[in-house]
Amino acid sequence: MAIDENEVRKIAKLARLKLSPEEVRLYQGQLGKILDSMVELGRLDTSKVMPTTSVLGLSNVMREDEPKPFADPEKILANAPEREGHYFKVRKVIE
Amino acid sequence: MNHTEMTAVAIADAVASGKLSAVEVAKAHFERVRALEPKIKAFVTLLEEDAMKRAAAVDAKRARGEKLGRLAGVPVALKDNILLEGVETTCSSKILKGYRAAYDATVVERMKAEDAVFIGKTNLDEFAMGSSTENSAFFKTANPWDTDRVPGGSSGGSAAAVAARMAPLALGSDTGGSIRQPASFCGVVGLKPTYGLVSRFGLIAFASSLDQIGPFARTTEDAALLLSVIGGHDARDTTSSLKTPGEALAGLKGQIKGLRIGLPKEYFIKGTDAEVEGAVLAAVETLKKLGAVVKDVSLPHSSYAVGSYYIVAPSEASSNLARFDGIRYGLSSPESKSLEEVYEATRGAGFGPEVKRRIMLGTYALSSGYYDAYYGKAQRVRTLIARDFDDVFREVDVLATPTAPTAAFKFGEKVDDPLAMYLSDVFTIPSNMAGNASISIPCGLTRLGLPIGLQLIGPAFSEGTLLRAAGALENASPFPKLNG
Predict the structure, then answer these.
(1) For residues B364-379, average pLDDT
(2) Within 10 Å of residue B138's Cβ, how many Cβ atoms?
(3) pLDDT at B1 over 70
(4) Main-chain phi, psi angles of B226, to 5 degrees
């Protein structure tokens, strides 16, 4: 399964990863090889098999949706690269 | 006796009964750390000051006449993807450098309640992606048995710390073998509990349908003790099972006579080192002498496990790791002008090559037009793998296999070939895909003196049975002990 460099750049864009031209070339080769190794999966007939969505076989457990206060929000905000008061600060998103 | 030679069970007993102080125990372990850590480099963060304070608090609690917990004064190392409040948690990634946990993981909370003493956070392959700990963004950890070799991964730091007797217990996480494979390489016990038995609240997620936290120890009894502390329902993890650790550990005591052991033919194949296979079969022979019934069995879809795993795990990772965007914690690109640029530049600079590779692979497998062919297909194949186990566990109680095809390999041996590295988990991945219980225990040494791991796999919540079989082997011939 060959992947071209444009495809690698497209995937990187979707994944929000800035890649150098060297990285694009590296991943182009490596991703192609990894995907090749998965070709055998396609030969397996799974048309009558249900996909696994949970290995536990749990069904939903319901509870009230009650907010609980977090003891010290400052501990969370202290990790922010940029903040203003009690908010995370980001670049302007609306022109 | 040097306190670093003691088991966790012995330390907890001695500290709880006042024969030994938690401070003495902690001191002895930090002395050992000072002597060995420059060569091994198991720890990303050492917590000597905190640990001495916590140990003193345990001793004070006893002096007040209060009853001590089941891990009284026991030094524990934590893989650096598990949150310990107030302490840096990095996942061995540049993108999380400087991040301080705002709360404790449930497993940490439960160990604190039992008076454990946390001595440090251990190195891992970045975001637990790897099989040698060489993918750490910070430094490589050495295998205590041969410092030219890798400790395995991704929980290589935890495995090395326990093997080198810098701690009697450690926690790791296992998504495709990340506890069992390093346990095998470092000659210690590593248990991957049944999916859902141990809460992942406070574990930084890699692949949520596969991740499990579990113990490293030097004895099966210590592994059982730590599992009994960390296991059990937690409302903060939506995948948490209602089963208690007591239920999972039922069957811990008792005979081996009549235990049905299966040897799956798909796990005894070309490519596995002859010494590894020989040691595994010798261990099975020992169990047979103790009265176990051994039977050849088949798990026909085993060869599809690695392929489907490397679709499912990266897909989930690409989604889980979207949260590292430079806004709320860790690295952030300061020069970027737009929000989009902040994301791309932060992630481009902050993630290492293996993490980027898996995010790309997962993004591709989930992208429009490819979803059914890759992710959808892999989830169906996963059903077939789980069904194989269901079928075989009607015939046998436990499966015995090598944990990994080889003993520890040398630094750099597989680092440029992602596919070769991925195959190091060929025998451990199926258990994660099915969500059942599995353990690796030492079963001998190669001619070069490297530990060999035996893997036992059982149905969901069969931890007691696995530990009973493992304990019988440990009694029959003690696990190899690292000299020095």
Answers:
(1) 93
(2) 16
(3) no
(4) -65, -40
Is residue B193 over pLDDT 80?
yes
Q: Does A94 touch chain B (CB under 8 A)?
A: no
- For residues A72 and B102, the answer to whether their CB atoms sit within 8 Å is yes
Residue A68 counted as domain residue? no
Query: How far from the centroid of its chain's Cα atoms is residue B189's Cα?
Result: 10
Contacting residues of B for A90, CB less than 8 Å apart: 327, 339, 342
Instruction: Tell me if A31 is assigned to some domain.
Output: yes
Q: How far is CA B459 from the centre of its chain?
A: 19
3-class DSSP state for residue B262? Answer: strand
CA dist B255 and B266 (Å) reads 28
Distance between CA atoms of residues B352 and B95, nearest Å = 9
Query: Which CATH number is A36's domain given?
Result: 1.10.20
Position B374: which residue type? Y
Asked if B147 and B40 touch (Cβ cutoff 8 Å), the reply is yes
Q: Is B79 a catalytic residue?
A: yes
- Min Cα distance A10 → chain B (Å) is 9
* Residue B275 pLDDT: 97
Q: How confident is the model over B291-311, as pLDDT tens digits? A: 999 999 999 999 999 999 999
**Token code pair at residue B90:** 């990095």
Structure letter (DSSP) for residue B96 = G
User: What are the chain A neighbours of B332 within 8 Å (beta carbons)?
Assistant: 81-82
ipTM score assigned to the predicted complex = 0.94
Sequence letter at residue A58: L
Sign for the pseudo-dihedral over CA of B250, B256, B261, B267: positive
Class of the domain covering B3-259+399-476: alpha beta
Instruction: Enumerate the residues of chain A whose CB falls inside 8 A of the CB of residue B460.
Output: 55
Asked, for residue A83, whether it belongs to a domain, the answer is no
The amino acid that residue B445 corresponds to is L
Q: How far, in whole angstroms, is CA B93 from its chain's centroid?
A: 18
- Report the distance separating Cα B365 and Cα B311, nearest Å: 7
Q: What is the pLDDT of residue A93?
A: 81
Domain boundaries, chain B: 3-259+399-476, 303-379
Spell B406-444 as b/e; 16+ CB within 10 A means b: bbbbebebbbeebeebbbbbbbbbbbbbbbbbbbbbbbb
Domain housing A32: 5-42
Q: Domain tally for chain A? A: 1
Between positions 95 and 114 of B, the ones with CB within 8 A of A are 98-100, 102-103
pLDDT band of residue B457 (cuts 50, 70, 90) is very high
